[in-house]
Amino acid sequence: MQAREMQTTKADAPLISPANEAPVVISLDHIHKTYVMGDVEVHALRGVSLQIKQGEFVAIMGTSGSGKSTTMNIIGCLDRPTKGHYFLDCQDLSQLSKDQRADIRNKKLGFVFQGFNLLSRTSALENVELPMLYAGVSGPERHRRSMAALAAVGLVGRENNHPNQLSGGQQQRVAIARALVNQPALILADEPTGNLDSRTSIEVMEIFQKLNREQGMTLVLVTHEPDIAEYADRVVVFKDGKIKSDYRIESPRSASEELKQLPAVDLDDDDDDEDLEIIAAVDHTVPERDRFVRMPKSGTQAPKPVGQES
Ligand SMILES: Nc1ncnc2c1ncn2[C@@H]1O[C@H](COP(=O)(O)OP(=O)(O)O)[C@@H](O)[C@H]1O
Ligand SMILES: [Mg+2]
């Protein structure tokens, strides 16, 4: 068992980690969230207190309905607590208006979702440029930063592909690049590997680990998969709208080491890519029968491939 129970939070005590002197990025202080549906009140969060420091890589776990997404929505300024306070970089965001929250979201946060949430009729490059468009970044700078972000997630040469021309893993990498371009204070990922096979999941976790270890990016990731949580440094477990336990992982799994051990499988994206290039090379203005062969004038010879006529 790699994980060691460091502190089981009773009620609402936040985790205190004397070894880590980094500044606190996220502070949830006795957060409650109640949804009202007709006559019924759903207590999604019942007093959640949690501190996350700069440079931490935290996995949030818990059964379905335990309050993970509600917590992420509050941290991500997509929703407000019914009661309690949320501080991001020491600023109290609990009572901000919708517009103010949108502004914080765009400037300070990067999001990665299970379903990728890419615009389908838009290239990888344009998808990545989008948050900067909202932030008012100039055209050339948008281009430069998007190219760099796509390169950082290993997608050089894929900039002009639309989402349906990319594998699931590649689409999630576009989403991660998009999350990075505004240089956010933290990245929030809700079940980012939920739609991916196990190898591709490890590839995505490798990107997250690199961002965390090499660039000091703060990451909060929701997952219901225990083996995915083991790539993080700390696990917070929710139950019934409360934090049930909060512990550190002494030796997290290393995605890049595991990928080295895996055989080089053709399940990887390269095969699909070749098909895509062939499809992309087809000129649809040419009638189908004329695309690859040119028929000889006399009916006696076999057709020759294009470009090989004498
Ligand atoms: N918009 C909403 N309206 C009403 N109830 C909600 C809403 N969002 C979540 N809930 C309820 O709040 C509880 C926590 O949900 P959620 O945070 O989505 O859990 P998890 O992500 O851990 O599966 C559940 O009982 C869920 O049904
Ligand atoms: Mg959820």
What is the count of distinct domains? 2
Q: Percent of residues in beta strands?
A: 25-35%
- In which order are the strands of the major sheet placed? 1-11-10-4-9-8-7
Mean pLDDT comes to 83
Distance between the termini: 70 Å
Q: What hetero molecules are in the model?
A: adenosine-5'-diphosphate, magnesium ion
Task: Work out the helix count.
Answer: 9
Describe the largest sheet: 7 strands, mixed
Summarize the amount of helix as a percent range. Answer: 25-40%
Structural class: alpha/beta
Low-confidence stretches: 1-18, 267-310
- CATH-defined topology of the largest domain: Rossmann fold
Specify the CATH homologous superfamily of the largest domain: P-loop containing nucleotide triphosphate hydrolases
Task: Tell me the radius of gyration.
Answer: 24 Å
Element-by-element helix/strand order: EEEEHEEHEHHHEHEHEEHHEE
Number of E-state strands: 13
Shape: globular
- Can you name the CATH architecture of the largest domain? 3-Layer(aba) Sandwich
Report on the architecture of this protein.
The protein is α/β, with parallel strands linked by helices and 310 residues long. It has two domains: 2-263, P-loop containing nucleotide triphosphate hydrolases (Rossmann fold), CATH 3.40.50; 264-310, no CATH class. The protein has nine helices and 13 strands. Magnesium ion is lined by residues 68-69.
